Here is the input.
Amino acid sequence: MHRTGPRIRAVPVVSPALSTDDRILLAQISDLHIGAGVGNADPARRTERVVAALSGLDPAPDAVIVTGDLTQLGEPGEYGRVRELLAPLEMPVHALPGNHDVRAALHDALLADVATGPGEFLQYEARVGRLRLLVCDTIIPGEDGGRLCAERLGWLEAALAADRETATIVAMHHPPLTTGIEAMDEIGLEPVSRAQLAAVLDRAPNVLRVIAGHVHRPMYSTCGGRTVFSCPSADVAIRLDLRHGAELGVLDEPPAYALHLVTDGTLVTHVQPLP
Here is the structure.
């Protein structure tokens, strides 16, 4: 029996497109930062461990999503290394950009066969069984913070409006929440984008979860009445420091992943750090 960590929250599935007979498992990893270190500090070693853990799960995930910051510098060679590290995964792998990524290089390495858009943005729809995955691009090239401009938010709003029935997960890098870690909130999703996204989500009751990365910690909140989950990193963790004016700190905690399981008509999220 494979242990999948503490259960965070179960939410009734409101969509008639899912039934109590559906069992769907979506794995999430985030913030690999390949290229950021060397030797024992090489994040590739941590990612190898996470991929091995996912490959050994029974039941196997139906798909894996990587919620951004796949690399440290966004260089083609780093994405080549990412492809090597993810190669053992036999299920579909869906990726999206983080603030350390470069759209063109990420597209060429992992999304060349995916119809993305609008324009240069790496946004797309995917299916995991009868679960719909809407992937959003929140990055601002050259900056650490995130944004959903009118074009990107319009794409999401149109996709949600086109189907109010199918159970849906919305994925992005910058989580639409305030962490209380001031240094992280300064480089989070812009407040205007967060408010506009909340209005869109409020009209989409079939969105079961918004999943993200960026903050290198497991946490959850709400946005527009929908649960927001941020996945811990496959690399190092950000220190939980809620003091006013505290500097951003990094901790050498175990790498971790998340499992989003649809079972018995509910969606539950598990967080599993590696021993």
Observations:
- The CA atoms of residues 40 and 46 lie 9 Å apart.
